[in-house]
Write a structure and sequence with these properties.
Strand content of chain A: over 45%
Strand content of chain B: over 45%
Mean pLDDT of chain B: 93
Oligomer: heterodimer
Shape of chain A: globular
Order of helices and strands of chain B: EEEEEEEEEEE
Mean pLDDT of chain A: 94
Low-confidence stretches of chain B: none
Structural class of chain B: mainly beta
Distance between the termini of chain B: 41 Å
Helix content of chain A: under 10%
Number of helices of chain A: 0
C-alpha cells in the first residue's frame, strides 16, 4: 500500500539555523500538507499546497517558514531561522481530495 | 473560530464497546474526520463523515449529526492494540477547504 514518507526521522539543530524537512507524498495525490505536534499537544495545521502553490496557511506559518515542491515527487518544509519553540514533531500529509488526508511518520525536530 | 471538545481519557476492557464523542463549533462545516495515533506516531486515518448518519468500517464506526454539531467514534470488540489517542478533526469554511482542525485527542486505555 502506498504511503507518505519523510526524512529525516529526527533532526537536531542549533537555534538560528535553517532546517529542511523532506516528504515524498503518495504519488497520485494532489494536495500536500504540513502539520506539527508539540509533545503532548494536539496536531496543528501549518500549510496546504495544491496545484504548485500554497492554498491555505495558519498563523503559525509565518515568514520563517516556506514550502516547495522542487520536483515531481518531493515536498519540503524549510524553517529559515529555528527557535526553541519550533521543537515539535512535523508531519507531512497528502490526499487526492481534501477530505481524506494520509500522514507520514513524522520528523522530530529538536532545537537546542 | 472553531472549537472541538472530546473527553481527555476513556478506559475500557478487552472485548468491550467504547464510544468517543466529539462536539464542535464551526462556520461552514464540511466534514468530520477521526484519526488514531499511537505514542506520537503518525495519525492514521480512520473515517470521514460529511453527511448525517453512521459509517461502518470493520470494528470501527463513526456517526455524525450536523444539526447537533456532534459526532462519535464507536470501537467494538476492543483489543489491547486499540490503546491509543483518538482525534476528531473538522474541515470548515473558516479554516479553509483543505485544512483539518484537530481536537485535543482522547486517550483510550484498554485493559485485559
Amino acid at each position: 500500500e502506498p504511503e507518505v514518507t519523510q526524512t529525516p526521522s529526527h533532526q537536531v539543530t542549533q537555534m538560528g539555523q535553517e532546517v529542511i524537512l523532506r516528504c515524498v507524498p503518495i504519488s497520485n495525490h494532489l494536495y500536500f500538507y504540513w502539520y506539527r505536534q508539540i509533545l503532548g499537544q494536539k496536531v496543528e495545521f501549518l500549510v496546504s499546497f495544491y496545484n504548485n502553490e500554497i492554498s491555505e496557511k495558519s498563523e503559525i506559518f509565518d515568514d520563517q517558514f516556506s514550502v516547495e515542491r522542487p520536483d515531481g515527487s518531493n515536498f519540503t518544509l524549510k524553517i529559515r531561522s529555528t527557535k526553541l519553540e519550533d521543537s515539535a514533531m512535523y508531519f507531512c500529509a497528502s490526499s487526492v481530495l481534501a477530505d481524506t488526508q494520509y500522514f507520514g511518520p513524522g520528523t522530530r525536530l529538536t532545537v537546542l | 473560530g472553531q472549537s472541538l471538545e472530546q473527553p481527555s481519557e476513556v478506559t475500557a476492557v478487552e472485548g468491550a464497546i467504547v464510544q468517543i464523542n466529539c462536539t464542535y463549533q464551526t462556520s461552514g462545516f464540511y466534514g468530520l474526520s477521526w484519526y488514531q495515533q499511537h505514542d506520537g506516531g503518525a495519525p492514521t486515518f480512520l473515517s470521514y463523515n460529511a453527511l448525517d448518519g453512521l459509517e461502518e468500517t470493520g470494528r470501527f464506526s463513526s456517526f455524525l449529526s450536523r444539526s447537533d454539531s456532534y459526532g462519535y467514534l464507536l470501537l467494538q470488540e476492543l483489543q489491547m492494540k486499540d490503546s491509543a489517542s483518538y482525534f476528531c478533526a473538522v474541515r470548515d469554511r473558516d479554516s479553509g477547504y483543505s485544512t483539518l482542525t484537530f481536537g485535543k485527542g482522547t486517550m483510550l486505555l484498554v485493559s485485559p
